[in-house]
Amino acid sequence: QVQLVESGGGLVQPGGSLTLSCSASGNIFGIHAVRWYRQAPGQQRELVASITSAGITNYLDSVRGRVTIFRNNTKNTMYLQMNSLKPEDTAVYYCNADLRVDAAWPPRAYDYWGQGTQVTVSS
User: Fold this and answer.
1) CA–CA distance, 49 with 35 (Å, rounded to integer)
2) Three-class SS of residue 119?
3) How far is the first Cα of the chain from the last one, in angstroms, to the nearest whole number?
4) Cβ atoms of 59 and 48 closer than 8 Å
5) Cα separation of 38 and 40, whole Å?
6) What share of the chain in percent tops pLDDT 90?
7) pLDDT of 2-44, one tens digit each?
8) Which residues, in sequence order, are CB contacts of 10 under 8 Å at separation 6+?
9) Residue 107, Cα to own-chain centre: how many angstroms?
10) Could you count the other beta carbons within 10 Å of the beta carbon of residue 34?
11) Are 6 and 115 in contact (CB under 8 A)?
């Protein structure tokens, strides 16, 4: 049974850094596109960062330059590295990835979500 398990959230001071991890458990055959979303209290969910199978990245304007999305295919883990954190970054962060869960050809990928991890930026 394939799942995405998130970790790395917590309380950090403004200007601090956190790296969120999203690990695919179970056997997978590959990671395609990866996205990180966040949802603050009383706010709509927003897309923070994405990376395609080809490695093309996109970022929310308010985090560009402070955030990096990347994957480690050997570890089957996706990451969101966040620096210079601001109180406005406080939210629950969710990873979302298209995963190959079998050896079908042509390749086919399915959409999986992590359980969410809380990031709180406060002094």
Assistant:
1) 6
2) strand
3) 40
4) yes
5) 7
6) 98
7) 999 999 999 999 999 999 999 999 999 999 999 999 999 999 9
8) 18, 118, 119, 120
9) 22
10) 24
11) yes
Tokens linked to 113: 């979500």
Interior CA angle at 85 toward 67 and 69, to 5°? 15
Tokens of 76: 């089957």
Shortest CA distance to 72 belongs to which of 108, 34, 100, 102? Answer: 34
Alpha carbon distance 38, 45 (integer Å): 6
List pLDDT tens digits, range 39-90: 999 999 999 999 999 999 999 999 999 999 999 989 999 999 999 999 999 9
In angstroms, rounded to a whole number, what is the distance separating the alpha carbons of residues 37 and 111?
14
> Can you spell out the DSSP letters for 20-77?
EEEEEES--SEEEEEEEEEE-TTS--EEEEEE-TT--EEE-TTTBTTEEEEEETTTTE
